[in-house]
Amino acid sequence: MKPALSSKKLPHPYTWDGMNNGQWVRESIQTRLDEWCPKLFGYHLLKLGGLSCELTSAVCNIQHQVNLDIQNPLHNVIADGYELPFLEKSFDVVILAHQLDYANDPHRLLREVDRVMMDDGYLIISGFNPLSLTGIASLMPWRRRTLPWSGRMFTPNRIKDWLSVLNYQVVHCDRYALFPMKKYQTMWTWLENGLGDWANPAGSLYFIVARKRTYPLKPIKPHWQLKRRLSPLGVMNREQDALRERHPPASSS
């Protein structure tokens, strides 16, 4: 398993147009985001990164929405994702569209997002699955410096493990796009639907919705003493009471 921390400088895409099949990937994420937006409530929403900024959330019930990035022109806050200029517990929803794939330190990025996340808030993450056709293509030498294959892809199960450490509960995980080809898209979609759910683990994209919990996901059972402890004094008193019941004292006339 490759380490999460990387010393290499990774190319960070700030727009979907700079990525191969980027608009197709954006539309697939947008479809799933539109399904979840009506279920999200709160006061503040954060879209972290240029790719997240280009996702629309007009149907979301949260009115105040912040787009944070350095290069994307749709931003309204310019800042580094590792040092968010917000107070703790500021946002009810945070969207990370393919940010972990191109982060040098994804653990640090998740910890910083967790710092500004409200209790019971929602974290939405999308990314590329390395155990897929896209992941196999990233192993080819002539594609290692081309987006999106130049990123560091992590499996959805590994993302779930990171979230569980931060006490997040994954409420939804969708793996899709078994055939990530834009050409003849209708045919590939029909074929993927025909294969059924067994092919989902090999999907090129994943869409995770997790919720921050304020209590442990695995409750700790208390070590209660349910059995009554015996003591010599208690045993003696019970024996004396039993003798009195068997031989009651004679009443004086």
Automatic annotation (TrEMBL):
Any GO MF annotation of the entry: S-adenosylmethionine-dependent methyltransferase activity
Domain Methyltransferase type: 74-125
Protein name in UniProt: SAM-dependent methyltransferase
Lineage start: Bacteria, Pseudomonadati, Pseudomonadota, Gammaproteobacteria, Vibrionales
Pfam family, one: Methyltransf_11
GO biological processes: methylation
Organism: Vibrio navarrensis
SUPFAM superfamilies, per the entry: S-adenosyl-L-methionine-dependent methyltransferases
UniProt entry keywords in alphabetical sequence: Methyltransferase, Transferase
UniProt cross-references to InterPro entries, sorted A to Z: Methyltransf_11, SAM-dependent_MTases_sf
